[in-house]
Design brief:
Elements: E1 5-9, H1 16-27, E2 30-33, H2 34-47, H3 55-63, E3 67-72, E4 75-80, E5 83-84, H4 86-89, H5 92-101, H6 105-116, E6 124-128, H7 131-135, E7 141-146, H8 149-162, H9 169-185, E8 198-201, H10 207-221
Parallel strand pairs: 1-6, 1-7, 2-6, 7-8
Antiparallel strand pairs: 3-4, 4-5
Bound molecules: cytidine-5'-monophosphate.
């Protein structure tokens, strides 16, 4: 039997990462940050001089992505080709790059098995846009997290500010709205809830409540 998967999908700033990490801590499961793989692919294309709409070459790079995830306690370092890109990875510029390469079917195909390989005992928490629909359609628990556009922009803003980034709320809102539009309207693996996902609008909910609800879902299915 395959290890269980909790699939968490939704637009940016919905709280997926925070909820995913809390569940990982509570259950001791593995964690797949699929967005990081698309971000790394976008960055790698940029560094190799490959345009984010060059499907063939972008997919070639995605297939050999020299990425390393290093965990040291609470901190995590992500290396690309030996370079620490942890900070650059989180910028909205990289998010936009990621969303462009993520619209390419060939890139998604190139990253599919790599994502599935994260599924190991005792279980996996997978965070992304198509975890419940494409990558782990058999996941026993699927959650679709969302929140109002204003609240999501504000959360992302606070997150980036905390990391010391110099951003404005107005331009960040616009950039995120455009990225979500592209993610939801693309033909390949568009952002949408799986038919069997629990839809959770977290607007106005505090994060602890959301974490409790998701944990209860998982525990109820084990
Ligand atoms: O979640 P995160 O903001 O890091 O994702 C960056 C981008 O990567 C998303 O806007 C989306 O275009 C793409 N992505 C995706 N499928 C996933 C995860 C992320 O297309 N499973």
């Amino acid at each position: 039997d395959l290890p269980p998967v909790l699939a968490i999908d939704g637009p940016s700033g919905a709280g997926k990462g925070t909820v995913a990490k809390a569940v990982v801590r509570a259950l001791g499961w593995h964690f797949l940050d699929s967005g990081a793989l698309y971000r790394l692919t976008g960055l790698y294309c940029q560094r190799q001089g490959v345009a984010p709409d060059d499907a063939r070459r972008a997919a070639e790079l995605a297939a050999v992505l020299p990425a390393e995830f290093q965990v040291a306690g609470e901190a995590e370092r992500i290396l690309l080709d030996g370079d620490d890109v942890s900070t650059e990875l989180r910028t909205e510029t990289t998010g936009a790059l990621a969303s462009q390469v993520a619209a390419l079917q060939a890139v998604r195909d190139a990253l599919l098995q790599r994502q599935r390989d994260f599924r190991r005992c005792p279980g996996l928490v997978a965070d992304g846009r198509d975890m419940g629909t494409v990558v782990f359609p058999d996941a026993p628990v699927k959650v679709f997290l969302t929140a109002s556009a204003e609240e999501r922009a504000r959360r992302r803003y606070n997150q980036l500010k905390e990391q010391g980034a110099d951003v404005s709320l107005a331009s960040l809102s616009e950039e995120i709205a455009e990225r979500d539009r592209r993610d939801a309207s693309r033909t390949t693996a568009p952002l949408k809830p799986a038919p069997d996902a629990e839809y959770l609008d977290t607007t106005g909910l505090d994060i602890e409540t959301v974490i409790e609800r998701v944990l209860a879902q998982v525990r109820g299915r084990l």
